[in-house]
Design goal:
The protein is an alpha+beta fold. About 25% of the residues lie in helices and about 25% in strands.
Length: about 160
């Protein structure tokens, strides 16, 4: 498994993976990433000191997932872990844990001290990964964008 920054050639693959996973979990509804305006152009949305998105490639170089972060303006020194999605062909191999660890390292390198995320009760496998990775539930922030999300989590990532 290797990580690299997303580029425009990855946009369609990642949009398809994300939409397929959301639909499978009955989250192809307004208020989720399924309807994000920039989902088909992630490479344009990310890229800079405050936000980046990385694709995950298998040993053959095929894009099998992605994960990103962006500055969270309403929480001091906090980045939001965004759009962690994996193709079904590589689930269960520990990739998601490695992805979370990787993105937390990138957040630290960018100067963030905490990581925040939004998820949904339908995504029990993801919630399990986040909890095992040290994330804890917090109250729903009033500033959230994805109104359909039901779980809000945070983790201090400073060493």
């Amino acid at each position: 498994m290797t990580f690299r920054l997303i580029n425009e050639n990855d946009d369609a693959v990642m949009a398809e993976i994300i939409r397929r996973k959301l639909k499978k979990n009955k989250l192809d509804i307004p208020g989720t990433a399924y309807y994000d305006a920039g989902l088909d152009k992630l490479s344009e949305m990310y890229g800079g000191p405050d936000c980046n998105y990385y694709v995950v490639c298998d040993d053959d170089g095929r894009v099998v997932g992605g994960i990103g972060y962006a500055k969270l303006p309403f929480m001091k020194d906090t980045a939001e872990l965004q759009k962690l999605y994996l193709d079904e062909s590589v689930q269960g191999g520990g990739f998601a844990y490695r992805m979370v660890s990787f993105i937390e390292d990138k957040m630290r390198e960018a100067g963030y001290k905490a990581s925040y995320l939004e998820t949904h009760d339908n995504l029990q496998a993801a919630i399990h990964i986040y909890e095992k990775s040290g994330y804890r539930d917090i109250e729903k922030p009033k500033e959230i964008v994805h109104s359909a999300m039901t779980r809000f989590m945070k983790k201090v990532i400073t060493e």
